[in-house]
Design goal:
Alpha-Beta Plaits; about 25% strand; alpha+beta; three-stranded mixed β-sheet
Length: about 90
Amino acid sequence: MHEPAPAALALVDRVRKIVETVIPMDEVYIVEIVVRGRQGSRVVEVFLDSDAGVGLDHLASYSREIGFLLEAEEVVKGHYRLNVSSPG
């Protein structure tokens, strides 16, 4: 099995910290955060869920807020695609 590089783990940690500031942690939880690809063509995937499920309107709102903060704090260098979804 391929182990993620330390830089990738650090990036996931930075994304997680931003997500935690956006979502209501008492209602929604992080299932997984995945960062794939290389600088300039990364894909950042954030999977969220809750006991009642996460609606599309909420996912869209979280995606906008997370994307804004990722850009403002220059977390991901170069071009990237952000996907915020629910596994359910």
